[in-house]
Amino acid sequence: MPTPTKGTRLGGSPAHERALLNNLAAQLFENKSVTTTVTKAKRLRPVAERLITFAKRGDLASRRRVLASISDKGIVHELFTSIAPAVAERPGGYTRITKIGPRRGDNAPMAVIELVLEPYSPKEKTVKEAEAVAETAAAEEADVAEEKVDEVDEAKAEAPADVDSGAQEDEAQAEADEEAQDKADDAAEEADEKAEGETK
């Protein structure tokens, strides 16, 4: 038996390994779940999900690619008509591996690999994004409110100064008016005195 150059090998040769994984994938698509060892389940997952991705495309070329791995046309038909539409909205992760404990006899770790056919609804992610947006909007509104309060406080602080300056201007204007009136009165008195002197 040839020694594998890298990683573990299932079976005696690469062709045997491919045949083993293809048969497991066919059983998975037919029965929707397969009980096998943990190692085989982990090696089966990328093979099965790649075939499901081909089935989601739905064209003739993809069907021929799947038929090159799974020769049973009935299973391929079920994959394209039943399984692919069920996972059409799911972006990935079409299989689930659940460990079930060691096998009696050789104590090999066992697992169940099954198809994830539940309806896909990304509600949790949408809710989290909505909450984040709401928190951001609330923080922005709070900042705007604080800025408005600061502006009002500054306006109130500047208002007395404006009133004082206005009062000072009024007082200065009144004093100037009084001085002008006094000068006008003095000029009128001088004119009267000159007129009386001329008449005498």
Kindly describe this structure:
With 200 residues, the protein is mainly alpha-helical. It is built from 5 helices and 3 strands; from the N terminus they run H-E-H-H-H-E-E-H. A 3-stranded antiparallel β-sheet has the order 1-3-2. Strand 2 and strand 3 form a beta hairpin. It is rod-shaped.
SSE blueprint:
Layout (H helix, E strand, L loop, with lengths): L13 H18 L1 E5 H20 L2 H10 L3 H14 L8 E8 L6 E7 L7 H77 L1
Antiparallel strand pairs: 1-3, 2-3
Helix pairs in contact: 1-2, 2-3, 2-4
* Unreliable residue stretches: none
CATH architecture of the domain at 14-117: Alpha-Beta Complex
Question: What profile does the largest beta sheet have?
Answer: 3 strands, antiparallel
Specify the structural class.
mainly alpha
Q: Helix tally? A: 5
State which percent range the strand residues make up. 5-15%
Strands in their spatial order, largest beta sheet: 1-3-2
Taking all residues together, what is the mean pLDDT? 81
Helix-strand pattern, N to C? HEHHHEEH
Rg over alpha carbons: 46 Å
Which CATH class of the domain at 14-117? Alpha Beta
Q: What is the CATH H-level superfamily of the domain at 14-117?
A: Ribosomal protein L17
The total count of strands amounts to: 3
End-to-end separation: 155 Å
Q: Helix fraction?
A: 55-70%
Examine the coordinates and then state which fold CATH places here, giving the name of the CATH topology of the domain at 14-117.
Answer: 50s Ribosomal Protein L17, Chain: A
Q: What overall geometry do the principal axes of the alpha carbons give? A: rod-shaped
Biased composition (Acidic residues): 138-153, 167-180
GO biological process, one term: translation
Protein name: Large ribosomal subunit protein bL17
Region (Disordered): 131-200
